[in-house]
Amino acid sequence: MVMPDRVAYPGREGAHSAAACDQLFPDNAELVPLPTFSAVAAAVTSGEVDYGVLPIESSLAGPVAETHDLLYDSPLSIYAQTVIPIHHCLIGLEKIPFEQIRIVRSRPIALDQCRQFLSTIPWATAVAAATTVGAAQEVAANGDPTEVAIASERAASSLGLEIIARDLGDHPEAYTRFVSLTTYTRLDCTGEDWRLAFSFVTDHRPGALYLALEPFSRHTIDLVQLVSRPIPRAPWRYRFDAVLAGFPLDPVVRETLAEMRTLTRELKVFGSYPAG
Are strands 5-10 and 51-58 parallel, antiparallel or unpaired? Predict the structure, then answer.
């Protein structure tokens, strides 16, 4: 008998990450909710679970810095990706008028995506939580109807909370890209559209970034994402996290990365996975 994959995600049933798990692992997976992003990464690294699922990019707020940093600081690799639409709801113990709201809890990125709504209730205090479903859990546990959360309809249903308002986001079309993580890098491309995620650090001198990226232009390789992140152990120094369209064993990709390695101080692969 084949045992199901154990898949960790941050939050609990009702989290957007749980919905991403359903898409990434539609068949025979045992889902393991954990309290934080770092707990998910640690569980995968230790072998406690087979995979972890984390958000990595919002169509509105951009890259999810914590996931990028966990990839950089751990031996994990992106295995697959999926994109899900994000619909923010205002949920609470009971339906109350907006003027009675005292505290709004949610994950910082969700609060940022609902700034227009929050500006209409300036008397309420926005309180950050590790996850949107964690914010909803706090609202349910505190038992105060003047405390509400910005979370998903799925979170409200799983916790027995009321939906006070729907579609709070500043923009009607909002999406989040999620990735599944594991401890090895895939090399099983079957000819489909493929992605390679990596990170690099350049010398701190004029033109260093241009020189590092020039081989992509010369070899006509599409760089579909480029993100700068500070290096904590080196103040005012930065690394660059990137994603290219291609498979690491393709000759042109191998040649480009080999050339890039000679032009950078550090080059680290984050994952190889299908684009779809």
Answer: parallel
Provide the pLDDT confidence category of residue 192 given band limits of 50, 70 and 90.
Answer: confident
pLDDT (mean) for 168-176: 85
Identify the structural domains of the chain with CATH numbers, from first to last: 5-86+175-182 (3.40.190.10), 89-165 (3.40.190.10), 194-274 (3.30.70.260)
Q: At residue 235, does pLDDT exceed 90?
A: no
Concatenated DSSP letters of the chain: -PPPEEEEEES-TTSHHHHHHHHH--SSEEEEEESSHHHHHHHHHHTSSSEEEEEEEETTTEE-HHHHHHHHHSS-EEEEEEEEE---EEEESS---GGG--EEEE-HHHHHHTHHHHHT-TTSEEEE-SSHHHHHHHHHHH--TTEEEEE-HHHHHHHTPEEEES--SSSS--EEEEEEEESS------SS-EEEEEEEE--SSTTHHHHHHHHHHHTT--EEEEEEEE-TTSTT-EEEEEEEES-TTSHHHHHHHHHHHHHSSEEEEEEEEE--
pLDDT score of 16 more than 90: no
Mean pLDDT value across residues 174-203 = 92
Tell me the pLDDT of the chain averaged across its residues.
Answer: 92
